[in-house]
Amino acid sequence: MIINYLFKPLGQWRALLFILLISAPSCLNAQSQLSAYISQGLSTNQSIKEQDFLLKRNIYLLQEAKSMFLPTITFSTTYTRADGGRTIDFPTGDLFNAAYATLNQLTGSNSFPQLQNQSILLNPDNFYDAKFRTSLPILNAELVYNKRIKSQQVDLQKVEILLYKRELVKEIKTAYYNYLKATNAISIYESFLKLLEEGERVNLKLFENNKINRTAVIRSQNEVSKIKASLTGAQKTEESARFYFNFLLNRSLTEAILTDDVPTLPAQDNLSFGDVSGREELVKLQIAKGINQNLTGLAKSYLIPKIGTSLDLGSQAFDWKFNDKSRYYLLGISLEWNLFSSGRNSYKIKQAIASEQAVSAQNSHVTQQLLTELNVRRANLQSASARYQAAQSQLKTSQTYYNDMTKLYKEGMAIYIELLDAQNQWVDAQLQSNIALFDTWISFTAIERANASFNLQ
Fold first, then answer.
1. 3-class SS at 117?
2. To which protein family does this belong (predicted)?
3. How many Å separate Cα 362 from the centre of its chain?
């Protein structure tokens, strides 16, 4: 009766329950909790927030580049006080005093005074000049290329954010599956520990009644100690997995993790194993190539003259006077053309062309790297799937072997060591099946990253 109580409830129904859990039908979109965690991680991750700030900065830089095509209005004023310096001597007295004296004699009056020679200061004294200047570029190739480059830098930063998000999704899913792997391992160890502790209790009773020798008791005690150590290791692994998962979601490390039902193997029919065109790394290279082309155009822009216009509306006078004579306007058109710079411009052009060629050469190399990575990930997925199928077969075989050995042991046709060996094989098969299942999902996640197939929305 004791042996029947020991093995029937703790053996058969726990094994069947584990097989049902490991084989429970599910599909990708059924993992609603994981999807919620991914959304949470994408919205709270600090690295992505940092990249968002950089995107805003690049957008502002683009807006600044666009504003350079619009007119600018500035106000400026100067006021000068002067004394000393260069002068102009004007002989006013020498020119007019003789004539004025003759006129005074003819008129019999002093209406015409005697004048002093003048020394006029060249530096303006007590003089102000205040004006509003409106400037507008008419032709400036540098501004055109600058705006194009800033626009491409915005696109580049958007792709950089997608790259961060895709890598974060991979890390979140991998950490999630590692956590599930650890929690399932804990469940397996806890179930087996209860089975072994009950066996230890039964063996101790049988030994006290002189039904068995001390070897079975010692062996059962050793097995209990071994499984307790394995359980402690699994618990620490689960704790580390929980810490890392919560770290990725930027929340308390000890916060509980809600999980979905254990899924079946991921579907591989719709996976693209030869297409990496969606990888953000290649998109970045294409944008970088365009930026280098515009940098080449910017370096050549010295060949095109710069034409601009300006309008000054102001007032200038002595002693802070403001009237019709002090007010003025000044309209001007400027042309600037770089005709000679000792070869500096040609060197800039050669540098830009070399950078453009380097990016073009890098594109082919990176494409081959990404294809190689995808093929390696595919091989890993196929290997993991094969291990899972083999583990499932081994699980069924070990379950049958354990059930048969249980019957033989209850009938006295097998010793405890043989039963213990069957138990260990059965538990090891459960653990291997659990590992293989989530290793397959981790490999599938790596392929999603390798071919950029996960929809980031």
1. coil
2. Belongs to the outer membrane factor (OMF) (TC 1.B.17) family.
3. 22
E strands along 46-200, which residues? 72-80, 87-90, 118-121, 127-139
**Is 113 strand, coil or helix?**
coil
Residue 16: what pLDDT?
40
Please identify every stretch of the chain with a pLDDT value under 50, giving residue numbers as ranges: 1-30
Structure tokens at 200: 């230890």
Q: Tens of pLDDT along 73-82? A: 999 999 998 8
CA distance 106 to 111: 11
β partners of residue 315 = 130, 327
The residues, ordered by sequence, that sit 6+ positions from 115 with a Cβ below 8 Å of its Cβ are 92, 93, 96, 97, 100
Q: Domain residue spans in the chain?
A: 2-76+138-306+342-450, 83-123
* φ, ψ for residue 163, nearest 5 deg: -65, -45
Task: List, in order, residues 6 or more apart from 442 with CB less than 8 Å away.
Answer: 173, 174, 177, 178, 384
Residue in 314, 320, 315 with CA at minimum distance from that of residue 125? 320
Distance CA 164, CA 52 (A): 11
Asked if residue 411 lies in contact with residue 3, where contact means CB atoms within 8 angstroms, the answer is no
Specify whether the CB–CB gap between 200 and 6 falls below 8 A: no
Q: Which two tokens stand for residue 165?
A: 């998000």
Handedness of CA 385, 391, 396, 397 (dihedral sign): positive
- Report the SS3 class of residue 80: strand
Confidence (pTM): 0.76
For residue 289, give every residue at least 6 positions away whose Cβ sits within 8 Å of its Cβ, in sequence order, or none. 356, 359, 360, 363
Report the C-alpha dihedral over residues 260, 11, 395, 393, rounded to 10 degrees: -110
Are 311 and 134 in contact by the 8 Å Cβ rule? The answer is yes
Residue 367's Cβ-side half-sphere holds a number of Cα atoms within 13 Å equal to 14
Question: How far, in whole angstroms, is CA 99 from its chain's centroid?
Answer: 91
* Fold classification of 2-76+138-306+342-450 (topology level): Outer membrane efflux proteins (OEP) (1.20.1600)
| C-alpha torsion angle, residues 312, 315, 316, 319 (rounded to 10) | -160
Return the residue matching tokens 């600058």. Answer: 146
